[in-house]
Amino acid sequence: MTAGCVRDSGDGANGASDEAGGDGAITLALNAAESRVQAAALRGDETVFAQEWHVPSQGTELLAPALADAFTRMRLSLRDVRRIACVQGPGSFTGLRLVLSTAAGMARALGARQAGLSYTQLLACGPLLPRGAVLWVLTHARRGLVHMQAFRMPGETVEVAAVSNDAAQPSPRPAPLPEPLTPVEAATLSAAVARMVAARFNDDAAVTRMAAAPSEEDGSGRVFLMGSGATRNRAVLAPALAELLPQACFLPARFDHPAPALLLPLAAAAAYGPDDVQPLYVRPCDAEENLPAMAAARGMDPEQARRELARLTSSPLTPA
Predict the structure, then answer these.
(1) Residues 164 and 306 in one domain
(2) Is the peptide bond before 90 cis (omega within 30 degrees of 0)?
(3) Judgement on whether residues 215 and 315 belong to the same structural domain of the protein
């Protein structure tokens, strides 16, 4: 079962949550949570560029030159970047560290402030679903494992929010973002099915609204799935959900990756600060789980190797 949905990647004019630092100031947004490297920039209420590159193994070599090229082609100055938003997870360990370390380095050089963005919420901004519908975003973590989070959909197209410091010209009300209903978690496929079914009939106040009967006036009671984790594992998930949660509907694979322009509504609504954004690691990395065997093969003490890995993955991205 599939559902046709509308992806909006156009410009808009909405409100902002944080000062951008002047009329010419630029907000830069970065994402490399899955196989695509994405960058987008906003100046005032104008989208100046939104680009992506499908480079699963070359993101490290590409991001900095691609940003320099984009700014040059658009005749922009990196010195005007005042805010940098970056997707902090969940996603590829390498991709997350790439954008977070790039943001941290640029912030120090430019005096910019930083903010972290949720990858699952970014994906949820893509489809236009009925108001009140529940959307489960599942992304691929590794074979047989997904990252998952549920959202209540606003029923409105998410547009780029204006970043305006002119109090005399207030921006229109921004379209609401998808509302998180559950925390991000990692789950096996069987656990993911159980989680979705349990949430549908759970008495927990955070998700009890999912149990509403389907409404003809809005999407209350309707359940949708999307993301690379749903697409890759549909052959396993679909039969189980058909029996236990028959109203669940898989969205097409074209929603597995967000349009780069969708970074901008989240970036415009984010709260910025002076600190580096830390990665959101939902599950242990493969190196951590395989560390004892890897350390022993190299003649290292497994416990010492575990401590060193913990230090490397929890230390600040750049020196203070």
Answers:
(1) no
(2) yes
(3) no
Can you tell me the distance from the alpha carbon of 230 to that of 137, in angstroms, rounded to the nearest whole number? 8
In a domain, 250, yes or no: yes
Per the structure block, which two tokens stand in for 96?
Answer: 């997350």
**3 state SS of 229:** helix
| First and final C-alpha spacing in the chain | 51
Quick: pLDDT tens for 272-293: 999 999 999 876 655 556 667 7
Q: What is the pLDDT of residues 157-171, one digit of tens each?
A: 666 544 444 444 444
Are 48 and 42 within 8 A, CB to CB? yes
What share of residues in the chain are helix, strand, coil (percent, to 5)? 35, 20, 45
- Nearest alpha carbon to residue 84 among 313, 275, 279: 275
Amino acid at 88: Q
Between CA 69 and CA 64 the distance in angstroms is 9
Give me the domain span that covers residue 295: 284-320
187 within 8 A of 148, measured Cβ to Cβ: yes
